[in-house]
Specification:
Order of helices and strands: HHEHHEHEHEHEHHHHHHHHH
Structural class: alpha/beta
Distance between the termini: 56 Å
Helix content: 55-70%
Shape: elongated
Number of strands: 5
Length: about 325
């Protein structure tokens, strides 16, 4: 059973897309195929379900579904006989899945002539599945609506894309993701940080619930404090904690991002833009530090971190990379 998502919630994340769908529903000009494209976590599946409810709702208010009638409830629970969702079977969507869908849609609608199908990860269709879908799209039934969801727009067949109305989903702003995380009972100091290191709701939620992330934040804060006090202590943290915790390149890259946001926070404090600070629970300490560092020095430190991130793609030893970074960050302090 899906949690019912209301129009207003999604409107905060994807105002342009929701405005277009509102116009489509209000004017009754529903195309036979749509392609929702955008990064993971931008609300494509939620919007496709909402669109389906708008089309099938018995008590629709203008363009908004009521979320409470039998059709809305059955779509939410995945039990509406005329709304079908296709997901990859293993790594791909197979030809047999598309053929089964076609067979289902060749029958008369159970409760009306209207039918709708959603294909998740449409870019993962095999060649045969894509060709079967293409035939389906070339001979559309006027009462059938297709919604294809993809994160890999460029991997779709041009012939399929050309038969769809494309709606592009924008990356979510960090504050919108942080608000979503707080609704999931994530503490605010984790929510905002997770929202900044990924612009993807699902990934941010996974990250903020992971003990690894909580420990990563703790190590970064310890290193940051040591950098402004004691070079040997900072080196010790790198050798005894950082190297043990940030093992994969992706993890090291994330750790450097966490460090970078601390220096960005100093700049925001110096500019009087404290509403943009990410480490809000550290603001009193950051306020003190902001008085002791020049903007030039902070900018140099940020550049050093960005250079370290760039060197991650070389075969440089991660411990050596971090030791050199610590030395650079210490030079002007």
């Amino acid at each position: 059973m899906r949690v019912s998502i209301v129009w207003e919630q999604l409107e905060q994340y994807q105002p342009t897309v929701l405005k277009m769908i509102a116009k489509i529903v209000q004017k009754g000009r529903v195309a036979h195929a749509y392609l929702f494209e955008g990064q993971r976590g931008t609300g494509k599946k939620d919007v496709s379900i909402l669109f389906a409810k708008s089309l099938f709702c018995i008590n629709r208010n203008g363009y908004k579904p009521c979320n409470d009638c039998i059709n809305c409830r059955r779509i939410d629970s995945g039990n509406h006989p005329d709304v079908h969702i296709i997901e990859p079977d293993g790594q791909s969507i197979k030809k047999a899945q598309i053929e089964a869908l076609q067979a289902e849609f060749s029958k008369t609608g159970v409760e009306s002539n209207k039918k709708l199908y959603i294909i998740e990860h449409a870019d993962r269709m095999t060649v045969n599945a894509a060709n079967s879908l293409l035939k389906f799209l070339e001979e559309p039934n006027s009462e059938t609506v297709a919604i294809l969801l993809t994160e890999q727009y460029h991997r779709m067949l041009n012939t399929i894309v050309s038969r769809c109305q494309v709606l592009s989903f924008k990356p979510l702003p960090p504050n919108a993701i942080a608000d979503y995380l707080k609704e999931q009972h994530i503490p605010s100091h984790f929510a905002l940080l997770a929202a900044y290191v990924t612009n993807n709701r699902e990934h941010a939620l996974e990250l903020s619930r992971d003990d690894w992330f909580a420990q990563a934040r703790k190590i970064v804060l310890q290193l940051y404090e040591a950098l402004h006090k004691n070079y040997l202590q900072a080196l010790f943290i790198v050798q005894e904690q950082w190297i043990q915790h940030f093992v994969e390149k992706q993890q090291i890259d994330l750790g450097l991002d966490l460090l970078l946001y601390l220096y960005k926070d100093l700049i925001y404090i110096q500019l009087g833009e404290t509403e943009k600070v990410v480490y809000k629970d550290q603001i009193s300490y950051l306020n003190q530090l902001a008085l002791t560092l020049s903007q030039k020095r902070i900018a140099e430190n940020m550049t050093a971190i960005l250079q370290a991130k760039a060197r991650l793609n070389t075969n440089m030893n991660p411990q050596l990379l971090m030791e050199q970074l610590v030395l650079k960050l210490q030079e002007g302090d």
